[in-house]
């Protein structure tokens, strides 16, 4: 099958990105009827509907979803290719990442990056939700996983590592001497499967269902605050809490640090790989990590 008309693909890309005929029409400088006409031509050519039209909203069909990502990436690459070379003189780099990585490692370094790039506005957003680059105003994201997100360029940053940490007062109170002693102590987010991994590597059996109720918190930052308050033992990444370890407010009682096969990755759509702001941020991150071996 030959490539559909560019006008129809352009309309489909805009509607798929916004999930709105109205917003797509405004962006393209067309009437809503003209956009609908192009979509109808494309659907007739393909023989299948691309959108489910409801009273106040639309959504992609299964076929529409299949075609949307590569089409959006292709137009993103075209926009990048034909962009004004001077357009990056003043621009915004919007970064999305999980709260723990942002608060414990990235935010303290972003000022340095922005000072080195004074014409670049930097915006940091934190969320546990996966970014949809086609519909959200996000330039890059830092995700936790294995780096295998379709349609995205991924750069490995660091492994996800963890080990028990607690206050020295709690360690003394419970006479913590060996890993087995942890089994009788209050563990924060005890249902976290990483506890089982760490315990197994320490030669211990860890029950799938924790023997007692306990605190379950949404991020490592919250767990660290609870540990600092003396409410239990947190499973934390040592490099994220160096200050607490250096000052003695938290201790790492055992040298064993475990991994779960996941890592932190810088990701962005493939069509953006040559965008100057992203190239600068990628180089900055990799340089900072090379100076911070963990």
From TrEMBL:
Matches recorded under InterPro entries: LysR-type_TF_proteobact-type, LysR_HTH_N, LysR_subst-bd, WH-like_DNA-bd_sf, WH_DNA-bd_sf
Gene3D superfamilies: Periplasmic binding protein-like II (3.40.190.10), Winged helix-like DNA-binding domain superfamily/Winged helix DNA-binding domain (1.10.10.10)
One Pfam assignment: HTH_1
Top-level taxon of the source organism: Bacteria
Keyword Transcription in annotation: yes
Alphabetical keyword list: DNA-binding, Transcription, Transcription regulation
PROSITE patterns: HTH_LYSR
Record field: transmembrane: none
Domain HTH lysR-type: 4-61
Family named by the database record: Belongs to the LysR transcriptional regulatory family.
Protein name: LysR substrate-binding domain-containing protein
């Amino acid at each position: 099958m030959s490539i559909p008309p560019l006008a129809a693909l352009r309309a489909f890309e805009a509607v798929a990105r916004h999930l709105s005929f109205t917003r797509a029409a405004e962006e393209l400088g067309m009437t809503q009827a003209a956009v609908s006409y192009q979509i109808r031509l494309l659907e007739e050519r393909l023989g299948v509907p691309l959108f489910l039209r409801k009273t106040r909203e639309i959504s992609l069909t299964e076929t529409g979803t299949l075609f949307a990502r590569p089409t959006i990436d292709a137009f993103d690459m075209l926009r990048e290719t034909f962009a004004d070379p001077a357009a990056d003189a003043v621009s915004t780099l919007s970064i999305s990442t999980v709260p723990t990585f942002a608060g414990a490692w990235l935010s303290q370094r972003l000022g340095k990056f922005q000072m080195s790039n004074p014409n670049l506005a930097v915006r940091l957003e934190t969320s546990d939700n996966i970014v949809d680059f086609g519909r959200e105003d996000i330039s890059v994201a830092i995700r936790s996983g294995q780096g295998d997100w379709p349609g995205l360029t991924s750069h490995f940053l660091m492994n996800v590592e963890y080990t028990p940490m607690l206050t020295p007062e709690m360690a003394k109170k419970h006479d913590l001497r060996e890993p087995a002693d942890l089994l009788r102590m209050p563990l924060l987010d005890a249902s976290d499967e990483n506890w089982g991994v760490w315990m197994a590597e320490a030669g211990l059996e860890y029950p799938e269902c924790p023997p007692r109720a306990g605190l379950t918190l949404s991020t490592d930052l919250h767990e660290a605050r609870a540990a600092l308050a003396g409410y239990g033992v947190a499973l934390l990444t040592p490099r994220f809490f160096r200050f607490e370890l250096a000052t003695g407010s938290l201790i790492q009682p055992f040298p064993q640090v475990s991994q779960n096969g996941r890592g932190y990755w810088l990701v962005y759509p493939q069509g953006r790989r040559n965008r100057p702001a992203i190239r600068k941020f990628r180089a900055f991150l990799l340089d900072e990590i090379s100076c911070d071996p963990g």
